[in-house]
Amino acid sequence: MHVVILGSAAGGGLPQWNCRCPICSLARTESGRVKPRTQSSIAVSPDGERWLLVNASPDIRQQISDTSVLHPREGLRHSPIHAVLLTNGDVDHVAGLLTLREGQPFTLYGTAGILDSVNGNRVFDVMAADVVRREPIRLDYAFEPVPGLTVTLFAVPGKVPLWLEDESMEIGAETETTVGAMIESGPKRLAYIPGCARVTDDLKARIAGVDALLFDGTVLHDDDMIRAGVGTKTGWRMGHVPMTGPGGSIEALADTDIGRRIFVHINNTNPVLVEDSVERDRVESRNWTVAHDGLSLTL
Ligand SMILES: [Zn+2]
User: Which domain range does residue 28 map to?
Assistant: First the structure.
């Protein structure tokens, strides 16, 4: 199985267009201390020929352009991207669908709850219904979006997208609006969970034994945004478990049998983004990798 991390940042990317926080500022310099990063997406293929895109970020055009295996290969119009899967309806995961118009056939997969966010907004009709098939998938049901690649979606603690929040919103609920994906090719298993509010025993049991885990690295501490002075929201309020502190993912997953542990969906306020920081050191000393764009794995 081939995996390419197309975008390793959370919503806003790095640097975020309007942000002068120390990390975004460093990402604008040539110092090399902070690598710029695009927004959350990965590409997966069983054979290097046919690819599944998991999440379609607002940066998708640049990501495809920067990734030669995703370039058109034959005829006048072509794409090796056969399918796109959504793990939630966040803007950083769906806005890129608008770039995938131009009459290129592919299948769009997601739970009914996630596809509702797309179906309910007519701007996405630029993906013509007779060209792009939208296929709702039940939780815990194995399907094959690309021949040779089996995917099973499962609910993880989360919340509805920010733009769908209302008074009834519940954080940490396990519904089909925020899911993880277990992606399998032959004996190899990859768990992709870019958004998760809490590590539960169910989740640990589900991912035990995977060859690689790509996990929510939005915040280091629950109060990263407040510490950085750029916001008032905690990680929990945004539906993201912190890496460290009470209930943090590093500690919670320490005893789970996992091949490679990689943080993705990293917010631009997270100090682990600074290459020479003590925070990066601490995370790496616990056997976690902080993803950068273009990081690829062969499982
Ligand atoms: Zn920033």
Answer: 2-298
Helix (H) or strand (E) holding 2: strand 2-7
**Looking at residue 60, which CATH number applies to its domain?**
3.60.15.10
What residues have CB less than 8 Å from 221, skipping those under 6 apart? 227, 235, 242, 243, 244, 245
**What's the whole-number mean pLDDT along residues 259-287?**
97
Cα dihedral 5, 17, 221, 264, rounded to 10, equals 0
Closest CA to 194 of 48, 81, 86, 59: 86
Separation CA 214–CA 191 (nearest Å): 6
CA 17 / ligand 1 centre spacing (Å): 9
Reply yes or no on whether the pLDDT at 175 is more than 90. no
CA–centroid distance, 165 to ligand 1, in Å, is 24
Indicate the number of domains in the chain: 1
Q: What is the pLDDT of residues 33-60, one digit of tens each?
A: 999 999 999 999 999 999 999 999 999 9
Residue 161, pLDDT score: 61
pTM of the model: 0.94
d(CA 280, CA 277): 5
Taking the CB of residue 68, how many other CB atoms lie within 10 A of it? 8
The answer to whether the CB of 67 falls within 8 A of the CB of 4 is: yes
Which range has the worst mean pLDDT, 68-77, 214-223, 226-235?
226-235
Q: What is the pLDDT of residue 49?
A: 96
- CA of 269 relative to ligand 1 center, distance in Å: 5
